[in-house]
Amino acid sequence: MVKFDKLWKKLDEMGLQKRDLYHATTQIAVAKMAKNEHVSLGTIENLCKFLECTPNDIMEIDMSDMTFSSKKKGSRFKDKEIIPVRIMKEKGLLIKVDGGGKPVENSSGELKKLKSTYRKMK
Predict the structure, then answer these.
(1) Which residues contact 21 (CB under 8 A, 6 or more apart)?
(2) Domain boundaries 2-61, CATH class
(3) Which residue, of 56, 95, 102, 106, is most buried by count of CB atoms within 10 Å of its CB?
(4) Average pLDDT over the chain, rounded to whole?
(5) Are 110 and 95 in contact (CB under 8 A)?
(6) CB neighbours of 48 closer than 8 A, spacing ≥ 6?
(7) Which residues of the chain have pLDDT under 50?
């Protein structure tokens, strides 16, 4: 989950309020960020230009929630879990992907093994 706590802290440090962000984005986007909901990359870009900062200065990723589910039809992310690359490297398992970015099961069953290992670690 992306958290925008850094954004609110930065605004406070700059003596700005949430409504000042309406110069760079919409009220809806500001309300979504207040609830740590998804906003577009364009919104992040506009905020960074407005505040003269980088995305790292206004947001962070909370790694405690490592699940992913997609409601979009046709999404390439069919699995409910994204396994961190750190764990992949630690286990020495490399996952091959096709041209569309979908995992390709190989003869040794690396993908199944990795998912099983990851579930046990949780």
Answers:
(1) 11, 30, 47, 50
(2) mainly alpha
(3) 95
(4) 77
(5) yes
(6) 54, 55, 57, 58
(7) 68-71, 80, 107
The pLDDT score that the predictor gives to residue 47 is 94
Residues in the chain: 122
The conformational region for residue 17 under phi > 0 = left, psi -120 to 50 = alpha, else beta, is beta
- Tell me 96's DSSP state: E
Both structure tokens of 121: 């670690």
Tokens of 38: 């998804």
pLDDT single digits (tens) 37-54: 999 999 999 999 999 999
> Hey, where are the domains in the chain?
2-61, 67-122
Q: Where are the beta strands (DSSP E) in the chain?
A: 2-3, 60-61, 96-97, 103-104
